[in-house]
Structures are given as structure tokens and as C-alpha cells.
Fold:
Amino acid sequence: MYPWFIALHHKLMRSAAAQSLHHALLINAKPGMGKHEFVHTLANDLLCHAPFNLTACGQCQSCLLNNAHTHPDRYVIASDKQISVNEIREALVKLQDHAQLSQRKVLIIEHADTMTEAAANALLKTLEEPTDNTYLLLTVSDIQRLLPTILSRCEKNSVTAPSAAEITSWLHETHQQTVAEDMMRAYQYAPLSIATALLETPETNYLSFKQDLGAIKKGQMHSVSFAQKWHQQAYQCLGWLQLMLQSKCLNAPDDASRLHYLDVSEFVRIEMQRVHHQGINKRLVLSHVIDKVMS
Ligand SMILES: [Zn+2]
Structure:
């Protein structure tokens, strides 16, 4: 289990052991924190017949079925698109049956903030009058996007990003990697995003972005080829530029340069909104911004 989820896991499993676990748990954490893995581990632990130290034993019938992804009392809704009312209804019908194996039933709803309004409404009754021993585990990346009616009926559990020191020691232990603070900031201190950027996408991560900016400054790269390489990540690049400008602003030696960085930062912010528009030429926007920022 990721270290930043351990305290929450402990709290929830202790409540479960004391028969006082809330039937609808909302897990709120931004992308790149590992909430998917967390809710699935939690489901295993809740369904296990003989948890040891609040953790699934791995050997009982329930654990074996969970490991084979064939547990009859475990339902998952995980859509890349919107969650439809039909998906919710289908799951709720199944939940009404008696638990076949464990005493408990678990429904995981990932990205619960993508439920349509009708889907959310279909879920409301179950949230108000849950069937016995049924647990709903909802995950969200942005709690603000969830309907207030859903929000008010769930127990909210927000997991904040770990500190720089925690990320450093986790990356070192699990991936033998070291990472600078600005790299962490570029990925909003989301440990899995940082690990992916370091290990899987070195060509297009923040470090590579910084290197390319350095190359432009030295005249070894043209803004057009820069835009050619980075246009698919234009929005993220502009966000990184803003971060860099903010830090330059904070460390500016005098008011004049501080104002200058504020100005440029505001310009980048406006361009960031533009790249969201359909049909905009992201290459053009990016090379234009780079020319202005590096001038
Ligand atoms: Zn077990």
C-alpha cells in the first residue's frame, strides 16, 4: 500500500472491525496518487473472511476469488466516459441480492464525479437507505464536481499529496530514483505521476522540457521545432512555464523584474485558456509563447 494511504486504511479498517464503518465512503485524491489501487485493496480487505492485522489474509475463499477477479459480492463501475444511469441501476439490482459468499458486499464506483445527473439520482436512494452490510466505495479527483446531494450522504475522506520528503524516500525505496523539488512541483506532488514521468516518459517529461528551453536560450533549438515536439502537451507545457515564471517572480531582485515576470505570466495564463479551444493551432500558440517568454 502506498504510504500516504496507510493512515486512512487503518482508520477505515478499524471502523469495519468495530462494525461502525460508514456504508458510503468517498475517497478524494487528485490524479497520480493511487486511489484506484487503494479502493481495490480496501475492497479485498473488507471482503476477506479472516483479515490479519486489518489486511486481507490472501488465503480464504473470498481472497482467492478476489485475486481471480471473480468475487460474486464485488461490483465495479469504472468508466472512461460518463457513468450512465443504466450502469448504476444494473449494479444496484445486483446489490439487492443477499451476499453469496462474504457477509459483506462492495460496490466500487471509480470517477464518481463522472456520473450523469440521472445516474447520481438513481444512486441517492441506496445512499439513504443502504441494504445491510453493503459498502459503496466512491473515488473522485475533484470533490467540487460531485453533486451536493451525493456528497452530503457520503463520509468524505480526502487524501492530500505527500510532502517532498515522503516522496523522496518513497521514490528512493521503490524505484531507486532521486528527484528535485521543481520536478515534484511540476507534477503537483502526485507520486505516481512523478514516477511515470521519470521512468516511462523521459523524452517528454518536465526535465526534458527544461532542457529544451535551455537549448532555445543557447540558440541550439528553434521555437518552431520546440513547438513541433511539445504541441500535444501544449496545455501542460504552458502550466510548467507559468510555474517557472512564478518562481522567478518570487525570487526577483527588484520590483521592475517582478512586474515583468507577472506580466509574462499573465500572458501565458491567457494563452493556456486558448489552447483549450477546438481548432486552435497549438504549434503556433506554443512557438509564439516561447518566443515571447524567451525574448
Ligand atoms: Zn482472506
